[in-house]
Amino acid sequence: MTASSGTWLGVACGIAAGAAWGLVFLAPELAPEFSPLQLSAARYLAYGLIAGALMLPRWRVLRARLGPADWRALFWLSLLGNSLYYVLLASSVQLGGMAMTSLVIGFLPVAVTWVGSRGAGAVPLARLAPSLVLGLAGVLCIAWESVARGTGAPLAQRLLGFGCAVGALVSWSSYAIGNSRWLARLQGVSAHDWSLLTGVVTGAQALVLAVPAFVLADLTQQPAAAWWRFAGVMAGVALLASVVGNALWNQASRLLPLTLIGQMVVFETLFALLYGFLWEARWPTGWEWAAMALVTSAVLSCLSAHRAPQAVDEMHP
């Protein structure tokens, strides 16, 4: 595979991962009777079961190729990128509102790209500045109208929500950086297998979340039809967003440097907006059109910065 084809394949995988992850934002709308903790626990329990079933035929081979350091990495990556991140994200939405949460989480591409630019031989931050500025402008457009209206929530509650959003930002940024670097030095394990292993470990962690989410909760409040819909939504999200989306992301992480993979996160926001427009049966507002144009320009600008010969050589030694 040539450097150019590898880069474009990585970008395609990043875009497809964003399309899969954007479905997560529809889950609360499709099952509004259930709490974020219940949504998170059920999603990752289903993810663990599906990943375990898919991984079973290769379990003996994979177990022989994984050492203690790999299992420790899987534990922390699963916690940072799935369990802890989603609980913090859901809590932030409940406490501070979707707009504030989106605004904070929208800094993910900036955080990951900035860290990636610090690595040896990476594309200089100055060359990535136009892309970062365009991305930030897009995020501000997405949140501007809602932030201007305010949520009416008490200040202490909004501050706590802001703290949860910052925690989610740090958690997922740490996952993206750590996962990309671990995949780069992993031998004998494919990106898809690593995603399935992450799913199994995340499923084990979800067992802990299930105690307060289901065991300690009153489960008689919802009718049987709501539970069947809840199970179907969570199984679909687990398969499409977690199994398929994470596998695509891992493939993109192996093909792209951190300075470019960070920009791929914006497609989760774009597809979440698209699904929201379809769900609400409306066209985007002027600010939302501007946001999508700016974010797309940011990714194209970042791609252009990586087309320099020295950057291509560094991406595909």
Fold and architecture overview:
The protein has one domain (3-315). It is built from 15 helices and no strands. The protein has helices at residues 3-21, 27-30, 36-55, 59-65, 68-96, 98-105, 108-116, 125-149, 155-185, 191-215, 224-255, 258-264, 266-280, 286-305, 309-315. The termini are close together.
Attribute tags:
single chain; 317 residues; mainly alpha; 15 helices
Q: Roughly how many Å is the radius of gyration?
A: 19 Å
Strand content: under 5%
Q: Major sheet, described briefly? A: none
Structural class of the helices, strands and pairings?
mainly alpha
For the secondary structure, the number of strands is 0
Shape descriptor: globular
Number of helices: 15
What order do the SSEs take from the amino end to the carboxyl end, as H and E? HHHHHHHHHHHHHHH
Q: Low-confidence segments, ≥5 residues, pLDDT <50?
A: 308-317
Distance between the termini: 12 Å
Structural domains: how many: 1
What proportion of the residues is helical, as a percent range? over 70%
